[in-house]
């Protein structure tokens, strides 16, 4: 059984995360963690009351009601857990044991809190929460660990669904690789598209649920690869079918399939938290992270002169300076930057020597003068490292800015398309060499940017960009060679276009990434994320005719600029309001932050920037935004049970407003339109309605925060838990029930039996 979050003095309200101390019960997702919060809160209340000297009748009755509510909740919770066990035989034994333990603990808590009818609850003749003070702690420990185990086991079902979905995608990909006729390809690709949509939904939900930001970034990168490769797989396969004897077409197609398989495997590694052959993941070491750790150690000498050795500090600096060689050895680093980096590296060694000298003296004789000298040495060492950090940042970002500006015209890609259509093999060979040179420049740019990215998610984005340029460059070359060999082939021309678009898209993403890196360096918030999904609705259909992506032109961007700016300001307001909440893991805060992130990406779209490239991307983002808003509105219902009765109608009224506005936005986003004018009108309406939702959110967040604080500062009396809903699993053999079974018997069903529990305040 897992180590309990309980201690002899009580249960911490945030202790659910502490259960991760047991590797078998490590909580990796927000949904599991947040499901435990109400239960922890109830148990905290009970344990905090076992030592209270003053016990009124009202308090005793409330304690009994809370104990009974916990027992009833656990009973229904266990019923769902047992249903999951029956549906999933491989988990049955573990799940059954956890359910039995949870039920037993719930019953024990109900018995120990049966105090309302007793004249003297402290009497030894009846064992209660007051007479058996360790008993309630033991029961709480068993309850929390067993409930957590049930939740983690239920979470395995979600993982199993993702693995099953991946396996279906892989099996269909194998069929696609072997097809020899267009008719067969059309049929199988249609099935493949549906399977990719299912995989997209499952992995998208998982990405947003992950607690680890690094894993989130890796998942986003892998899903982005799958999104782009889906279209590449379509055109590359069609080209191969049209020109079966063309070696360059086969190489082009094989490259796409290989990359998709790697991306699919990476998703499973993240979901299952495993590496092939038991390998440990090697975290990329950047100059920024090295300097940060080095400075922390140096500054730690103020508190403790003996917590590390001088050899340890010297080794850390050596590693940092080795990484600066990536800059000084690069052919693309300017002479001025190279000289400054070498000079600062030399100075850093000298400052460390001086620091070590004073440090060793201070260890032997802790005089006032020596401690002052040590403080000066610490400050000078840290200042030198800051200057080194600033210099490598300047070197990397200035190179990136220059390269991105130089390559914005895409002259090499345009030349490849023209010479390919002309069938000019010699000219194609000349421009493929130029593209290879460009690829090397961009790969080097990504490597240097990784060193100065500032956060682990941005480091991973840099690595993803480097991989994309490394792989896409040769694929463009093979596509161009195929077109040059078959200059009249429409499908070969379309295939080259798709790979060139992927290259252009990555260059555009690099501009955005560069802005985010600069934001982090300058202390501005640079962590806005776009919720990715793949493949986008309508992008591929059964007859293999891709929809033409539509972008806003300059005039349309100008028209919508004011609305976009208002949206930008509202995202800043929402971010400000969410930061005021003490509990950043609160479900309302989480949904609010997600909506702000998506609204920010929609604002960037109005400027022609960001990861939303086409109007179709925007409409899809608006749908996801509306769904997130509906989830927030749903979270307001259990929240309303926490506030005073007079305030409850106000919260529910705001929830209804939000639901109505999100439904209107979803209807607008899903409405089909034809023509440029109608499309722009739809864009305008989506941005306008998103702005309205964000305006409501700006009012709603401070209201909820205020009511929560008001409730905490109230009279302190225990408030009984509300009646439990009977959330029964649907039965019957109809198709709809079958489709919903996974969700009903997954972790969501278990959440329903815990999430309604009232947050109770200690008296």
TrEMBL record:
It holds the Pfam family Vinculin. It is found in: Cytoplasm. Residues 7-18 have a biased composition (Low complexity). SUPFAM superfamilies: alpha-catenin/vinculin-like (SSF47220). GO terms for biological process: cell adhesion; Rho protein signal transduction. InterPro entries: Alpha-catenin/vinculin-like_sf (IPR036723), Alpha_catenin (IPR001033), CTNNAL1 (IPR030045), Vinculin/catenin (IPR006077). GO terms for cellular component: cytoplasm. Residues 1-20 are annotated as: Disordered. Belongs to the vinculin/alpha-catenin family. This is Alpha-catulin. It comes from Urocolius indicus (Red-faced mousebird).
């Amino acid at each position: 059984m897992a180590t309990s979050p309980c201690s002899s003095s009580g249960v911490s309200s945030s202790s659910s995360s502490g259960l991760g101390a047991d590797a078998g019960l490590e909580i990796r997702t927000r949904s599991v963690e947040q499901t435990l919060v109400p239960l922890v809160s109830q148990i905290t209340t009970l344990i905090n009351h076992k030592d209270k000297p003053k016990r009124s009748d009202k308090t005793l009755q409330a304690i009994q009601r809370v104990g009974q509510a916990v027992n009833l909740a656990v009973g229904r919770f266990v019923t769902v857990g047992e249903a999951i066990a029956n549906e999933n035989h491989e988990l049955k034994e573990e799940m059954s044991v956890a359910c039995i333990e949870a039920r037993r603990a719930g019953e024990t808590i109900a018995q120990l809190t049966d105090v309302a009818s007793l004249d003297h609850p402290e009497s030894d003749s009846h064992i209660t929460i007051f007479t058996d003070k360790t008993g309630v702690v033991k029961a709480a420990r068993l309850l929390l660990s067993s409930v957590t185990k049930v939740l983690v086991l239920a979470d395995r079902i979600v993982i199993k669904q993702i693995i099953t979905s991946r396996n279906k995608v892989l099996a269909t990909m194998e069929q696609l690789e072997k097809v020899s006729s267009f008719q067969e390809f059309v049929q199988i690709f249609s099935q493949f598209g549906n399977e990719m949509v299912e995989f997209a939904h499952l992995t998208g939900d998982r990405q947003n649920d992950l607690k680890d930001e690094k894993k989130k970034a890796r998942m986003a990168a892998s899903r982005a690869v799958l999104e782009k490769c889906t279209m590449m797989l379509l055109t590359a396969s069609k080209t191969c079918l049209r020109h079966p004897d063309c070696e360059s077409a086969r190489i082009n197609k094989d490259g796409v399939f290989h990359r998709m398989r790697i991306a699919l495997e990476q998703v499973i590694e993240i979901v299952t938290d495993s590496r092939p052959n038991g390998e440990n993941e090697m975290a990329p070491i950047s100059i920024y992270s090295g300097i940060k750790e080095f400075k922390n150690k140096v500054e730690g000498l103020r508190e403790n002169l003996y917590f590390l050795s001088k050899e340890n500090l010297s080794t850390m600096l050596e590693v940092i300076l080795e990484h600066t060689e990536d800059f000084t050895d690069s052919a693309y680093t300017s002479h001025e930057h190279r000289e400054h980096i070498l000079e600062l590296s030399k100075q850093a060694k000298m400052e460390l020597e001086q620091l070590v000298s004073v440090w060793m003296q201070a260890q032997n004789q802790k005089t006032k003068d020596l401690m002052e000298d040590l403080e000066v040495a610490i400050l000078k060492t840290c200042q030198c490292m800051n200057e080194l950090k600033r210099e490598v940042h300047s070197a990397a970002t200035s190179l990136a800015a220059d390269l991105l500006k130089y390559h914005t015209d895409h002259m090499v890609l345009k030349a490849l398309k023209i010479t390919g259509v002309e069938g000019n093999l010699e000219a194609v060979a000349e421009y493929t060499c130029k593209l290879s040179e460009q690829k090397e420049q961009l790969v080097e740019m990504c490597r240097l940017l990784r060193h100065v990215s500032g956060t682990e998610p941005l480091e991973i984005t840099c690595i993803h960009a480097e991989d994309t340029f490394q792989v896409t460059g040769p694929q463009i070359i093979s596509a161009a060679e195929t077109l040059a060999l078959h200059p009249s082939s429409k499908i070969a021309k379309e295939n080259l276009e798709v790979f060139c678009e992927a290259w252009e898209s990555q260059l555009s993403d690099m501009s955005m990434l560069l802005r985010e890196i600069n934001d982090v360096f300058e202390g501005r918030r640079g962590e806005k994320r776009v919720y990715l999904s793949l493949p986008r609705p309508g992008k591929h259909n059964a007859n293999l005719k891709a929809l033409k992506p539509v972008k806003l032109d300059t005039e349309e961007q100008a028209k919508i600029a004011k609305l976009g700016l208002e949206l930008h300001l509202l995202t800043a307001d929402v971010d400000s309001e969410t930061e005021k909440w003490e509990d950043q893991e609160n479900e309302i805060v989480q949904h609010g932050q997600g909506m702000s992130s998506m609204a920010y990406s929609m604002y960037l779209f109005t400027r022609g920037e960001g990861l939303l490239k086409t109007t179709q991307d925007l409409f899809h983002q608006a749908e996801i935004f509306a769904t997130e808003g509906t989830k927030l509105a749903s979270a307001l219902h259990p929240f309303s049970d926490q506030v005073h009765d007079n305030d409850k109608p106000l919260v529910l009224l705001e929830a209804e407003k939000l639901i109505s506005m999100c439904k209107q936005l979803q209807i607008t986003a899903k409405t089909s339109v034809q023509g440029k004018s109608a499309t722009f009108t739809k864009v305008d309406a989506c941005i306008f309605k998103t702005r309205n939702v964000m305006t409501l959110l700006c009012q709603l967040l401070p209201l909820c925060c205020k009511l929560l604080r008001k409730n905490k500062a109230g009279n302190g009396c225990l408030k009984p838990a509300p009646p439990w809903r009977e959330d029964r699993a649907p039965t019957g053999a109809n198709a709809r029930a079958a489709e919903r079974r996974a969700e009903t018997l997954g972790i969501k069903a278990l959440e329903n039996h815990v999430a309604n529990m009232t947050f109770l305040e200690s008296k």
